[in-house]
Amino acid sequence: YFYNPSLDAVVDAVVDADSLPWSRCGARADVSATNSQGAHRVAAAYGINAFKSLARSHPRVFARHHPDLEVRRDGSVGVRGAAAGE
Hints:
The protein is built from 2 helices and 4 strands; from the N terminus they run E-E-H-H-E-E. Strand 1 and strand 2 form a beta hairpin. Helices cover 22% and strands 16% of the residues. Helix 1 packs across helix 2. It is of the alpha+beta class. The longest helix has 12 residues. The radius of gyration is 14 Å and the shape is globular. About 7% of the residues have low confidence.
């Protein structure tokens, strides 16, 4: 059994990120996160984040199976060659 939500599930923030005793370099947890590669957008839909995680974690597998897609500088996944937001 898998205990992950449905891929189209939208997960709302449980608490206001500003009220937490720790911070993510001044970024709100429900908008962006900072990691060793810089700022990356965190989407509300679980499936988008799962796909983005797969793409970033396994770039050669991702490129082999999705040659029409690319991982953008902000961490999002989009159509290769298309401007962000298209």
